[in-house]
Amino acid sequence: MAVEVPELPDFSDPPEFVDEITEEEVLIGTNIVKPSARVYEECCVLIWGIPSVGPERIEKLKTVLGKLFSLTHPPVSTLFPVDDDGKTKGFCFVEYGDPNAASESCKILDGHQLDKNHTFSAYSLSIMNELKEPPKEWTEPTPNKYIDAGDLYWWLQNPKAMDQFAIQDERRDGVKLQIYWNAKGQDPYIVNDNADRTAWSEFIFKWSPFGTYLATFHAQGIVLWGGEKFERVLRIEHPGVSYLEFSPRESYVVTYAQDDYGRFDNTLRVFDVFTGELKKSFQPSGPTGSGRIHDWPFLKWSYDEKYFAFCRAKGDCINIYNTETFLVENQIELPGLVTFEWNPTRNIVGYYCEERFDQNAPAEIGIIDYPSKQKLRAQRIFSVSSASLYWQKDGQYLGANTERYSSRKMKDNEVKLIGPTSHVEVFDCTGKEISVQTFQLPEPFIHFGWEPKGDKFAVLVGSGNKVTPLIYKIDPGKPQPVQLGKLDSGIQLTTVKWAPQGGWVVVYSENSTVGQAIFIDANGQEPARTRIVEHSSMNFGEWDPTGRYFVTASVGHNRFETGYRIHTFQGRELYKKSLDGLTRFKWRPRPHIVIPEVKVREIKKNLKVLSKKFEDEDRKEQDKASKELIEQRRKLMDEFNKIRKVAEDRYVVEKAERTRLRGVDSDSGYSEDEFVEETITVPLTTIIKPLKEENTGKD
Question: In terms of domains, do 418 and 501 share one?
């Protein structure tokens, strides 16, 4: 059934009519508001991509499209512009009764595929009016030359499954960036000649999440490198860029040029990694204010890259964009919103809203499903001063640390919190209903870390020279997590790092004079400390992607001694390198590969055979390394003997001149008569005795 769109009557005055009464006089004493052009524009939707038909088919087209335009709300009017021949121009205007109806219709119609040749693009007329004229100096961009960097995943095919890492250090001739293989049983070595460059990056460097690209910073923007020869894959122009972040699947890269004085527009930009196209730009704090953002990364991505979102300071809402259109898709209103985090495996969002004293509203920590915007669980708590959120890597649990207080007082116009305590809230997302376990920590909270794959987490509590690592396990049948055993305290510990596959955890101190790292085996029912590593001036620690090695490093300026050390997962030191001017150390990440369950069972079944095979390979590798070491020493000895032979020949040639100058043949040796024997006695101890005067006279 066709939907008839009513045509509005024309109430326009005749051209010669002169109105003696103003609109303001007519509206006196009424509640009628003068129409606003802005509100009218928000009620109108401009739709591109409709078929272009002749006059004889316009009515049929209006009938077909009228059904689509009425899916959410019936339109007030429609307008189909035509050319001189009476054919539609491929777009139309649709007016709705209010802005909300227009917005809902716009979301449904945008991207709607009418047939294989026509896909709609729907925009609010208010947005279209905000479009700016292109600059006069604009020219049509030229296509970028395709660069074949070869196999971007070549490094994953290493037969020994070795990992790579990159280091950056400052030298007299410039900033040096080098990429190494981390080889088992031998010292790390440079990947190839192309992986050792000076002035490769003017600032820092960053690996992409899967390790496909190496990003370097330059005055005019970012460069992405890849392939076996580390060739330039993409150049992204953004002058003054100081921050960079990749989307979870490496499809997009976000750059930010810090602007404290509001001198530049669009300081935050989103680019397509494959094409280099600028997809979206932002001015985080508005065009007239400071360009400094309050948090990094400012844009937070969903795990599947369908959405990205941000919240402004004191903005009270999450702004969500769709990556198909890069337009605002939705807003989630959350009064008092401080921060939020996407789940790493599902499109749900964890959030924290601060306490609002003026409205007597408690703090709120919860989880929202998207796009339904349904609150799956919310925990409302009074007397909360701050909170931080921690998603588990598998997305099964959300941890929240809340700092609470017993009372709040005002003194000298300053708020003073009395009786602070630290608590942990655990949201269990493994079942249909999300449950929450809450407990108080015995000492002040320092840091939190989830086991990536499992149901355990570690918390650092204490202060100063006494910091205790606590490891807990989630038990759904109990009201709060179960603490697993007790571990001794450490000194100035600040950070928790679990191995990528779980089971092992390292707690260490950053930016402290102690430089202590504690390796903990958390595989059993009771955690056990395996080793304590002392690395003075240490301020960085990180697991390699496989969890076989852990690096401790002292990096940056004004450090006592810069360098890095590579340890086994149990804490045994394998390699130590002191390097003046070391500013950065980063393992090359690996893509997440899901091994089928059948393959896992096969590996477990044949584990003994595989272990023996790998042990034999390791033994051969060690023998090969020993042979190479012996061969290297033999070459060095041969070179030394060559130098020694040249010196001996020269010595023989110079004998006559040497004898003439010395007056004696020093090479003939000396007879025993020419030697004088002399004995020297050296006292080993000295005793001082006072001399007494003896009276030799007679009385």
Answer: no
